[in-house]
Amino acid sequence: MKYLTKKNRAILREMVSSDFKVRYQGSALGYLWSLLRPLFMFAILYVVFVYVFKIGRGIDHFPAYLLLGIVLWNFFTEATSMGMTAVVGKGDLIRKISIPRYLVVVSTSASALINLMLNLAVVLAIVLFNGVMPGVSWLWVLLILLELFILAQAVAFFLAALFVRFRDVVYIWEVLTQAAFYATPILYPLQMVPEKFHGWLLLNPAAQIIQDARQVIVTPQTITTWEVWGPVMAFMPLTLVILAALFATWYFKTQSKSFAENI
């Protein structure tokens, strides 16, 4: 892949701006939907899980705890789902103009990242409203978000290259993300799961990222990989993210040579 030169940065900015505008074109509320969708989902899940099933009563600041998990997961699914179809969706552009193929996928992840930043502003407002005092530990969230972005980008690269050849990937990914959503402690505290399963669930990088973010921003009651696995194995999810990024980058690069022919 080519480096992100000044010309490529300009192309990337234009693609991100175009994607973001097209997404809400013709909508009365426009960009507000990027905030309203997770808030609506949060409101429904909060009523169902807290007042009907009485989940999360033992977790401090559970509304913020729940919303943060939903927002982070939504970014992952949005970035990977949009990235998966990006190359095929911009097939005409790729055939007509010589641009680095990876920019097409990165632009969708960057667009999803803008949504994430807007949503996190709402989350932080709810966190403060719940009485959580900001501290130095909040700075760790920058590294946690970087890990999340790298993970989502790696998966998006792999799926985008795979989708060019196999269109059924979109349906398989929908099923996998639905299963992963419930297998990841997003709607429920990890304390509800038998302790013997904590370690295995936290080897999932998405679970590790969400739990770490909750721990540094919302409440120290959050069970993290560091607590369960110790200082050595705690880096296993991060190692998996790095390996996934390296493999996905290599796979995308090798397949991108034939994109124009297969789209």
Q: What's the helix and strand layout?
A:
Elements: H1 6-23, H2 33-52, H3 62-89, H4 91-96, H5 101-129, H6 140-165, H7 169-183, H8 198-202, H9 205-217, H10 225-233, H11 236-256, H12 259-262
Helix pairs in contact: 1-5, 2-3, 3-5, 3-6, 3-7, 3-9, 5-6, 6-9, 6-11
Could you explain how this protein is built, in words?
The chain has one domain. The longest helix has 29 residues, at 101-129. The chain has helices at residues 6-23, 33-52, 62-89, 91-96, 101-129, 140-165, 169-183, 198-202, 205-217, 225-233, 236-256, 259-262. The chain starts with 5 loop residues before the first helix and ends with a helix. The chain is mainly alpha-helical and 263 residues long. The model has no long low-confidence stretch (mean pLDDT 87).
Short key terms for the protein model shown above:
mainly alpha, 74% helix, globular
Number of helices: 12
- Write the H/E string, N to C: HHHHHHHHHHHH
Computed structural class: mainly alpha
Helix content: over 70%
Biggest sheet features? none
- Provide the residue-averaged pLDDT: 87
Poorly predicted spans: none
Oligomer: single chain
Q: Whole-Å distance between the termini?
A: 20 Å
Number of strands: 0
Summarize the structure.
With 263 residues, the protein is mostly helical. It is built from 12 helices and no strands. Helices cover 74% and strands 0% of the residues.
